[in-house]
Design brief:
With 463 residues, the protein is of the alpha/beta class. Helices cover 31% and strands 26% of the residues.
């Protein structure tokens, strides 16, 4: 009995001795532990990146909309758009088909017999054709979209918004669009890749139910193919992320139109406010259908045009970065088209000097170049947003890595786990200036700890 008790005591003493000799707990949590570690005010914020878990591959983040009508331009470019093109080098562009100017009156009563003399190649349409011609020479992929229709195409011409096209006129509208696409092809040497009605889900100008849109695609896709046009239809081109899933599903339910469809497209005006689940569900559904996903209008406030004094400021740049970050992280979008790049309409510059929003957009586009693979990251919290990607290798070297941070709250100390080891640079932008602070350090144990200033946008780049 005593011998057994002595053995037990010796065993306990041995365990205690071993514990005393054990290495102290690491200052920073391991990547495996980080995901379950609850952040506290004293500890800061802990996030994890998962470099082996890919979500989507970036096509281009610095592309945009070039809308001559909204930009007030009758030339291919003007100083604002020219500076945007030079600095952002868009690989994808979206232009506007101005149907009321193109076919103000029906060319004839036969939608299968185009009267070329009745289609007007002038004003905003000619400017769009000329810009597309320049883009075509640069290898830029093109979308052409409709906002307005002439009165004769509307069921009730007295209605300005949510105009309905009678089904009996679908062939005539298709003829008008096809004539525009053929003029681009035959006169300007331009092949338009995709066509859409802008925000038809809410009837911003033209209203189409999912079933009506499917029928228009059914007729239009067939006619485009007969005419030798390669143009396909965007799926959705919705006014926002919220509600787009149900709208796109309703159109996609018509399986016979699938050969005529291109990417799922949405606008992210609600990119700051839509729930994580709403954004993720849209992207996950599109992925399950094998559809590419694009954000064809990138922004954060659809009413910002009313407050042009905010265009140059830091808050505009920071909130644009927030909307892009959340959408890129969660939606699986490959391509972003900023709204918009012509004239003083949501302007990124004044024709001479880039605004902070342009600098942030250019930085993000260069940090996530074409071919970057977006990877899984731990969830955002209420103030801090991150998105990460593996960037392509250059000249046979190793792949790079980047983490984009937006801090919409007070100063925070953050730890990020799971980083590939190597040399990193942290670039910090805030109200005091763009890239106004840089830090360099080595990552040797797959984590780093650093400070995110109040209301800042930061970029962590593996060199």
């Amino acid at each position: 009995m005593k011998s057994h008790f002595l053995c037990v005591c010796l065993l306990i003493l041995g365990i205690l001795s071993a514990c005393q000799k054990a290495s102290p707990a690491p200052t920073h949590p391991s990547p495996a532990a980080a995901a379950s570690l609850a952040p506290t005010e004293n500890l800061g914020r802990v996030f994890t990146v998962y470099p082996e878990q890919y979500r989507q591959t970036v096509a281009h983040l610095g592309s945009g909309n070039f809308m001559h009508y909204f930009g007030g331009s009758l030339t291919a470019t003007e100083p604002v758009s020219a500076l945007n093109i030079r600095m952002l080098q868009p690989k994808f562009a979206r232009v506007r088909i101005e149907l009321p100017e193109w076919e103000p009156k029906n060319d004839n009563d036969d939608p299968l017999a185009m009267n070329a003399d009745k289609f007007r190649d002038d004003q905003h349409n000619r400017a769009a054709f000329q810009l597309m011609q320049e883009f075509q020479a640069q290898g830029v992929e093109l979308i052409a979209s409709i906002w307005l229709i002439p009165d004769w195409m509307a069921k009730d011409p007295r209605v300005e918004r949510s105009r309905v096209i009678p089904r009996s006129l679908y062939p005539e509208v298709i003829e008008s669009v096809a004539a525009w696409l053929l003029r681009a092809q035959k006169t300007y040497g331009v092949e338009v890749d995709y066509f859409s009605f802008n925000e038809a889900n809410i009837g911003i100008n033209v209203l189409l139910s999912p079933e009506e849109y499917a029928e228009f695609i059914r007729q239009g896709g067939k006619r485009f193919a007969e005419l030798g046009l390669k143009t396909k239809f965007l799926l959705g081109d919705c006014s926002g992320i919220s509600g787009c899933l149900d709208y796109a599903k309703g159109i996609y339910a018509a399986e016979d139109i699938h050969p005529y469809l291109g990417p799922l497209a949405f606008h992210n005006w609600d990119g700051v406010n839509a729930t994580d689940a709403t954004i993720s569900e849209l992207g996950d559904w599109a992925l399950a259908q094998g559809l590419e996903i694009r954000c064809t209008e990138g922004g954060w406030d659809a009413q910002l045009w009313r407050r042009s004094e905010e265009f140059p400021g830091w808050d505009n740049a920071r909130l644009l970065a927030t909307s892009y970050s959340r959408t890129l992280k969660l939606s699986r979008a490959t391509t972003f088209y900023y709204w918009q790049m012509m004239g003083n309409d949501y302007a990124l510059n004044d024709g001479k000097t880039p605004y902070l929003a342009m600098k942030i957009l250019q930085q993000m586009s260069e940090a996530f170049p074409s071919g970057t693979r977006i990877v899984e990251t731990s969830p955002n919290n209420s103030a801090i947003y991150l998105v990460a990607g593996e960037t392509p290798s250059t000249q046979g070297g190793a792949a790079g890595f980047v983490v984009h941070w937006v801090n919409n709250g007070p100063k925070h100390i953050v730890t990020v786990n799971g980083l590939p080891n190597g040399s990193y640079t942290l670039q910090i932008s805030d109200k005091n200036g763009f890239n106004q602070a840089k830090q360099s350090f080595e990552v040797t144990n797959h984590y780093a700890t650093f400070e995110l200033p109040e209301s800042s946008v930061s970029l962590l780049v593996k060199e």
